[in-house]
Amino acid sequence: MSTSFDPSGLHTELFIDGAWQKAASGATFAVENPATHEVIAHVADGGPEEARAAIEAAGRAQAEWAKSTPRQRADILRRAFELVIANTDRLASIMTAEMGKPLAEAKGEVAYGAEMLRWFSEEAVRIGGDQATSVDGNTRIMITKEPVGPCVLVTPWNFPLAMGARKIAPAVAAGCTMVFKPAELTPLTSLALVQIFREAGLPDGVLNVVTTANASSVVGTWMGSGIARKVSFTGSTEVGKILLRQAADNVMRSSMELGGNAPFIVLADADIEKAVDGALKAKMRNMGEACTAANRFFVHRSVAGEFSEKFAKRISELQVGNGALEGTDVGPLIEQKGLDKVESLVADAVSKGARILTGGSRPDGPGYFYTPTVLTDVSQDAELMRTEIFGPVAAITAFDSEDEVLRLANDTEWGLVGYVFTENMDKALRFSAELEVGMVGLNTGIVSNPAAPFGGVKQSGLGREGGKIGIEEFLETKYTAIAV
After folding, report:
1. Whole-structure pTM value
2. CA-CA distance, 483 to 160, in Å (whole number)?
């Protein structure tokens, strides 16, 4: 299989009010393949002028789009779903080229993103309300749902199709218009998704996209416009806090899916083979570059040796390489900064007593590659126990009691997801209840599902994406009092 990428037919412009256009300044920024350092495209670099045009287009389109019928919106989403499925190979190849993940994994992301479109096509026609009679019998209470209005959508680089679909789909289903800023590192997949929505019949002005190398200038324009009524952001907690402060100025609805520091807990009675399989999924999906990635591995001392040995063996067998090559299990990290961070975190842990069971180095050659790594005897004061690793490194610590491991697992400002492996139902329910997270994987290393509400607690975010409540983030509740 060739690793060369064909950029022909790619859209690299801004998309505003139904038209593809270059930045007014003519500026562009480069998109690099992290496996080869090859520049694969130059994308329009929008600024405040284009941002203003985009939010104004969304504002103009909102009233008419809100009047569209649920079936019209559902049909658009269903057509978009079908187009994504039909273009799986092309979308996956774009994603692998600009983000690095193995092609098979990229196809999995396409399928997941498509399911978001299908899920919300079905939810669009199920937006409900309520009615009741007041306690004094003099008023009929009618409760209806309305679109919140123009939305600011900001997505990360690590899941460029899935994150776009997870935000655009419920906004479309609810009847909201949008301005959308994809990540600078991976804009091409997002732009391809926008083209699919255009082909699916989404009206002009409903979805407007500004790519940029200066996110704050574009998103700041939208946040301060007075037109946008909601912001949905996936990314770092640091940036999320900035957006929340900006949202406060116009009292905007906010959904935040922020950082994680996921504990992966293996209790003494766990099925070790099952736990190792789950650990591989929870740690190595997307090269560990996921907010849901297992960050801290806590294993009961009685099984720590067995788990560590088997996990290290499985990790050492993974094939590292260009994601476009058949047989690749682990692609590159996204950029030099991420690679340097991972290397620094491993060095810090080793300096504080950790032992490397496998990996712990950069392979020779081009690309931002790091060998999948398992560390054991990791000290609680190691930096990687307190920060998101965002790379293929598993840090294992032994524990002795359930109370101890719950304390360690909850000793973090983040609370997105936790993983627990046990064959005891009472323990499973206890850990599910006492872990301070928004999601728990019990004997599974994967929690993302279109039918489930995705989101965290503490500094991991606000609101939920997906599931039956995902559309509620884009709806306002209106109460009408009717005299009887």
Report:
1. 0.97
2. 50
